[in-house]
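COMPLEX REQUEST
Ligand: calcium ion
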Amino acid sequence: MKECAGKLTPGRYTVKVTLHRVHCSGKTESDEDEIYCVVTAGGGADRRELARIAVGNFEIGGDIHTDKLIWNETNLEGVTITIMESDANEPAHGSDDFIGEIQVSADGNCRPGHDTLDEGYAENKRYRQFSMTGSGANYVVQLEVQA
Ligand SMILES: [Ca+2]
Ligand SMILES: [Ca+2]
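STATUS: Structure written out below.
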């Protein structure tokens, strides 16, 4: 019983998420997509932005291997990793475009959010792969999650 209770203590797990690869097979812009990702916790009015990381610019067929560290914290709650397209340089186009999102629970389990499909693991079995189709785009995102 004691051991079981210990396992349920919040904040026990450090979750490390690395963005391994992003592949573009459909853009939301006519020119380059400027992709970034945001890490948030909470929802609705409690939504808090914890990190914002630039990923890169994409044309169709674009394929970026980044191995960028996105998150490396002891999670007290789940976080959401949202892939966005920036319109900072296109003020006439309104707000940034949503591409897709992945929810990472406190113990490191991943599940797809809006406009996102869980494709399981990449061919090498090491990276979790998600397909994202928000705002008419089509991206494949590979994450390495260590918990
Ligand atoms: Ca846009
Ligand atoms: Ca843009």
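REMARKS: The two ends are 23 Å apart (CA to CA). The beta strands are 14-26, 33-41, 48-58, 63-74, 79-85, 97-104, 110-112, 116-121, 128-132, 138-146.
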